[in-house]
Amino acid sequence: xxxxxxxxxxxxxxxxxxxxxxxxxxxxxxxxxxxxxxxxxxxxxxxxxxxxxxxxxxxxxxxxxxxxxxxxxxxxxxxxxxxxxxxxxxxxxxxxxxxxxxxxxxxxxxxxxxxxxxxxxxxxxxxxxxxxxxxxxxxxxxxxxxxxxxxxxxxxxxxxxxxxxxxxxxxxxxxxxxxxxxxxxxxxxxxxxxxxxxxxxxxxxxxxxxxxxxxxxxxxxxxxxxxxxxxxxxxxxxxxxxxxxxxxxxxxxxxxxxxxxx
Length: 262
What we know:
Elements: H1 8-11, H2 38-51, E1 58-62, H3 70-73, E2 77-80, H4 86-96, E3 101-107, H5 108-114, H6 116-125, E4 130-135, H7 165-168, H8 174-179, E5 184-191, H9 195-213, E6 218-224, H10 228-231, H11 235-249, E7 253-257
Parallel strand pairs: 1-2, 1-3, 3-4, 4-6, 5-6
Antiparallel strand pairs: 5-7
Helix pairs in contact: 2-9, 5-6
């Protein structure tokens, strides 16, 4: 029985495409490793900004690390900050232009280690900015070193026998700390490992952005994420490892919400 010749031009039509690229995502190939959570979060940020009609008034601040490349992919105004200093720069931008939607996009090594002071004090002051925090428990870009968020027993290039609390201290739970600061109005921890999780993360980002524009104070949206390369796992195994170990230390959910927003 002769097989039918497939006409690709007939199949690849907009109505047949499951994934629609958000208009604010630049038409360039993403360089992130397979299974990396950054690409999914970029998509959510781009969609929320477009949904809010803030394309011309959104300003992102990206520092150093894998997170820095956000400016290549989301078509809004960006400022690049020195390592860890994104909340300080975002503070200046928001105070100069209070009508702008200002957010930072940071990894855990940047936010929870090198930029701990800037992060904590910006949140405590109640700056009307949003901090998007990608937590994959490792320094992903620079070789897989231990981060403040690295789990007890987790092996990295700088703790090859596993993180030992007596030697290295304990994982730093930034989100729980942020929830206790009087300047924060919305503090949440999400993930993007399932469709349901992606939808919930998008709602969280939208609420944080809306709270910022209403002048309610600081918001922190943590996304528990994978680093397949740094963890030396396949994308599927990385998601499994994250669910088994990361969620045990970094519980998901809202930790503070005084916004009254849905």
